[in-house]
TrEMBL record:
Protein name as catalogued: DUF1109 family protein
Keywords: Membrane, Transmembrane, Transmembrane helix
TM regions (residue ranges): 27-47, 59-78, 93-111, 132-153, 159-178, 185-206
Domain of life: Bacteria
One Pfam family here: NrsF
Length: 213
């Protein structure tokens, strides 16, 4: 939306809202970003060879549900922050609830584990690069989210960019589950979350420039 268009819209009356974006204009960039994320994961990392066996374990589905819940909360934040005047008071609760749930699961797991094995649950085998891979995989989805938001009328550009990065990072974490060999809730609640927060920081940095009218 251009500045002149926004001024004209606001001057026409107090009850005039931002025009709804066509569904296709939203879905196509999102699908393209998701497809690019999956292709990037397959090209760089590949699917874990024991995925069928891992999918039979509750720990695998815990990290899938964790990433999916954060992605849903992130895209809800993107939708609300893309339009001025929409209530956002509950967004912190939506974003924090999955994190709190997985941290409670991680605390229970640590409580049940002998002290000498607890460090392994936290560090795993891939902590050095897991967050950065999630952030890397998030870039196509971040570009799609910023493209969609730019066509609307976000006013808090840095916060909107952070929301786009969070949603993209959580979506990338969900795709990354197909490759990641880690199964511990302690690992997922720490290093997956860090990767998502790195993507959020990238979005926050890009937001003011990418979303400026």
């Amino acid at each position: 939306m251009k500045t002149d268009d926004l001024i004209t819209m606001l001057s026409s009356g107090p009850d005039v809202g931002v025009a709804a974006r066509p569904t296709r204009a939203t879905l196509l960039p999102l699908l393209a970003g998701l497809l690019a994320c999956v292709v990037l994961m397959l090209a760089l990392l590949g699917v874990r060879p024991d995925l069928a066996q891992a999918a039979a374990l509750p720990a695998f589905w815990l990290k899938v549900v964790f990433a999916a819940a954060l992605a849903a909360a992130g895209w809800t934040a993107v939708k609300r922050l893309a339009v001025p005047g929409v209530r956002t008071a509950r967004l912190p609760l939506y974003l924090a609830a999955p994190v709190l749930a997985v941290w409670l699961a991680a605390a229970a797991l640590l409580w049940q584990t002998s002290p000498e094995f607890r460090a392994a649950l936290f560090w795993g085998r891939t902590w050095r690069y897991c967050p950065f891979l999630i952030a890397l995989l998030s870039l196509p989805m971040l570009a799609a989210a910023l493209h969609i938001m730019r066509g609307l009328a976000p006013t808090r550009l840095r916060l909107a960019g952070a929301a786009a990065g969070f949603a993209a990072g959580a979506s990338a974490a969900l795709v990354y589950c197909l490759h990641c060999p880690e199964m511990s809730a302690v690992f997922v609640g720490s290093w997956y979350l860090l990767g998502i927060l790195i993507a959020s920081a990238i979005g926050a940095l890009a937001g003011p420039r990418a979303l400026a009218w």
